Amino acid sequence: MSKRIKNVIVSTIIITLCASFIAASSSDNFKIVKNLDIFFSVFRELNLLYVDDIDTEKIVKSGIDGMLSELDPYTTYLPEEDTEEFDLATTGEYSGIGAIIGAKNNYVHIVETYKDFPADKAGLVAGDLILSIDDNSLKGKTTSEVSNMLKGEQGTTLTAKIVKIRTSDTTTVKLTREKVHISGIVHAGIVRDSIGYIALSSFTQNCQKDFKNVLRELEKTKQMKSLIIDLRGNTGGLLDAAVDIVGMFVKKGTEAVYSRGRIKDFDYSYKTKEEPIQLNLPIVVLVNSGSASSSEIVAGALQDLDRAVILGTRTYGKGLVQTVRSVGYNARVKITTAKYYIPSGRCIQAHNFSERNEDGSVSTIPDSLKKEFNTSNGRKVYDGGGIMPDVEIKSDEYSDIAISLVLRNLIGDYAIQYFAKHEQIAEPEKFKITDTDYLDFIKFLSDKEYDYKTKAESLAEKLSEEIKDKKYDAIIQAQTQTLISQITHDKLKDLQTYKQEILQLINEEISSKYYYQQGRVRTMLTDDKQLNAAIDILLNKNKYTEILQKR
Question: Which residues contact 43 (CB under 8 A, 6 or more apart)?
């Protein structure tokens, strides 16, 4: 029996069973049965008659993805091979050696290690090249393929052949896989004058326990008198973790968020479950456009309850709740089942996926249609567009050249080269590369590709095309070309014009090679105007109180 006939027989049985079940469950489901039958009929004809062999799994997955694309970007299909990555994102745990890897010279190398996990304990460092794993050469393998080889059951071992970055020696290292827990807490400490600081990168499973431990540590041993919670770039995670963190600062039993769905089973009120740790501690929460979902629940709940000052820029605006359901064969589907509402009663969802524009694009809720709500103190807040901070402080925008250098990983590559030449550096708060080092960086870039187009150049090109289309005279066209030549970027000039921001990025990247992710954040905080604004508010009790009062 041919492969195609087998596929058709198996698919027929599955579709028939599904259709029978749907038809039996309700006579109102005729449309579902009809469209499933059409879908299967199309698949059957393709499978039997298409000129080339069909990858069944691939074409069905494409069909599922196409169906879900009509909804919202958070409703997604997770085949068996993607579930591990999803679990890592939600739990912060996986079994492996605890290292980030990247492509290098047709092999992979260590980009970063997690502190106190197998790779770190074995002495592997940024830049070390991995030649083979268990005598299997890694030449030509992708980072994804190598990552799968490094992961495995907890307690199992692997042998890796390594070329050390600092000595160029080839050595063999035996590693025992462990359960790697990536804490949502990136950095915590005292930033100034008894002001605590906690940077939370994601709301993973049990991150609230890490948060509580850090909070108590700052409270007891560091004599913390106020707190900054940094949620910038935190795209969210588990809702329960967010509610538990809110509960550390408000009375037990306070409603932090509630959800409403089409099915009543998904209507739920999330109330804080434990006694607070700090009920009156002054708090500033830092947010930006990268703060989404659970981050917005924490920021929004603390804002609505007048429990913290929110500072930064408007958040992303994700007010949707997802539920993960098993669909068999170790596959899952993540479905948006409800919208969530924070204590004032507002939903901060910014995009309306149910009513798309004629061109298929997603519309945002205009300011004129946003509804007004009130915080506990009577301050005005609004729905439909993320959390608007109480104090808006915009961060500096990066230049085109800086963005290009980061996206092409040239700053990361230079940081590894620097790491190879220097055994140690100063503490992250004090570390800065020298002018000589920066000249070395410019030399490092001399044979690298990092072209980019500035906004001015893009506008000038459009102007030039418009002038040609309208057939303006030769003088105007010549003047336009002169303008373009004058604003065309000069890489070497841009490297000097934007030296300070590029230096800061280099310092952050180098610090991460010596002091892990915490080092990156500690260096970043030395030049952070949003953090400095938060500190100023916490040092001024009257200003802090005034912001939270009804205006």
Answer: 11, 59, 60, 63
